[in-house]
Amino acid sequence: MKIERFEDILVWQKSKNLVVDVYSILKDCKDWSFRDQLQRASVSIMNNIAEGFERRGDKELKHYLFMAKGSSAEVRSMVYIAKEVKFISEKDFKRLYEMVEEISKMLSGFIIKLN
């Protein structure tokens, strides 16, 4: 299948689902600064995939995929804190962590494919 739009990219779709879950899970979090940072990091994953794709060059796309990968690490790191300080449950931690770990692995595969 030829990818014609960034919306066709599976890792972008999974990143969008992650964002929706992050917003939903943290909707009652009163630490607005923490919530904002975690939301921004998750949004950054999908936006970097989209921006890289729209630049229409493998070199540019790879650069933005690496940035998305960095944001995925930030999300993974922050969900640990969210769990430790009881902003999220163990169940939500596991769900978010597994989602972002899968996204990170998919990004790595995508980057390797571009080499």
The CATH class turns out to be: Mainly Alpha
Number of helices: 4
CATH superfamily: 23S rRNA-intervening sequence
Q: Helices and strands: which structural class?
A: mainly alpha
Essential attributes:
elongated; de novo design (two linked rop proteins); mainly alpha; 115 residues; single chain
What does this structure look like?
Helix 1 runs antiparallel to helix 2, helix 1 packs antiparallel against helix 4 and helix 2 packs antiparallel against helix 3. The two termini are 19 Å apart. This protein has a single domain, classed as 23S rRNA-intervening sequence (de novo design (two linked rop proteins)), CATH 1.20.1440. The chain is mainly α and 115 residues long.
Question: Topology, pairings included?
Answer:
Layout lengths: L9 H16 L6 H23 L3 H27 L5 H25 L1
Helix pairs in contact: 1-2, 1-4, 2-3, 3-4
How would you concisely characterize the structure shown here?
With 115 residues, this protein is mainly alpha-helical. The chain has helices spanning 10-25, 32-54, 58-84, 90-114. It has four helices and no strands.
